């Protein structure tokens, strides 16, 4: 027996507005286990630099 997919009416509207056909998967992905730096400009003109690293034993779960 064949089954047919019921098409969502909003699906066509979203596709025209958000076209991901030329998207590149993982373009901005960078392993978090190496750490990362966040720079925040404050109102007084100074810049706060914060370095983050995953704690030892932390498990990073990535959804694909």
Description:
The chain is of the alpha+beta class and 64 residues long. It has a domain at 29-56. 14% of the residues lie in helices and 19% in strands. It contains 1 helix and 2 strands; from the N terminus they run αββ. The protein has a two-stranded antiparallel ribbon with strand order 1-2. The longest helix has 9 residues, at 9-17. It is elongated. It starts with 8 loop residues before the first helix and ends in a 12-residue tail after the last strand. 0% of the residues are buried. The model has no long low-confidence stretch (mean pLDDT 77).
Blueprint (SSEs and pairs):
Blueprint: H1 9-17, E1 36-41, E2 47-52
Antiparallel strand pairs: 1-2
Query: N-to-C SSE series?
Result: HEE
The neighbouring-strand order within the major sheet is: 1-2
Helix content: 10-25%
Count of beta strands: 2
Low-confidence stretches: none
Residue fraction in strands: 15-25%
- Give the overall average pLDDT: 77
Shape descriptor: elongated
- Count of individual helical segments: 1
Q: Please summarize the sheet with the most strands.
A: 2 strands, antiparallel
How far is it from the N-terminal to the C-terminal residue, by CA?
Answer: 32 Å
Radius of gyration (Å): 21 Å
- Counting helices, strands and paired strands, the structural category is alpha+beta
